[in-house]
Design a protein that fits this description.
The protein is built from four helices and two strands, in the order H-H-H-E-E-H. Strand 1 (about 80-85) and strand 2 form a beta hairpin. The chain is extended and about 55 Å long. The chain has helices at about 15-30, 40-50, 55-75, 115-120, and strands at about 80-85, 90-95. It is of the alpha+beta class. It has a two-stranded antiparallel ribbon with strand order 1-2.
Length: about 120
């Protein structure tokens, strides 16, 4: 199975060298999933990596990137089909997570992602 690098069309021409390097990594590690390289993500990563970025701005954009990363990771989880009845009485053919989600915080490594994960699911 080939894992192709996905760049948003409007930024693909800006980084051909980087795309080639990333594609080599994806070819070497076929299980690796790379978050789609959209203009929005690239802009946020530019702000985060800029040494002149103020702390508050860094935290704000880092939290947004974390949320995008978590949303992409959730897309990789297994789902099952679920039919529900809408308030109008129509049947909607939807999806539900196959299993409960359990997040384990890793001190000093994954702790910054905890709030982003919590924001994706209602606690019962």
């Amino acid at each position: 199975m080939s894992n192709k690098l996905r760049f948003a069309p409007n930024i693909l021409g800006l980084m051909q060298d980087e795309a080639a390097r990333l594609q080599k990594i994806l070819d070497r590690f076929p299980q690796l999933q790379l978050v789609p390289q959209t203009a929005q993500l690239r802009a946020m990563m530019t702000i985060i990596r800029d040494r002149t970025t103020k702390k508050e701005e860094f935290v704000f954009y880092a939290d947004r990137v974390i949320r995008l990363l978590i949303e992409e990771a959730l897309n990789e989880l297994p789902f099952t089909q679920q039919d529900i009845t809408t308030p109008t009485g129509a049947t909607y053919h939807g999806l539900a997570f196959s299993h409960k989600i359990c997040g384990v915080s890793i001190v000093r490594a994954g702790e910054s992602m905890e709030a982003g994960l919590q924001g994706t699911d209602q606690e019962e």
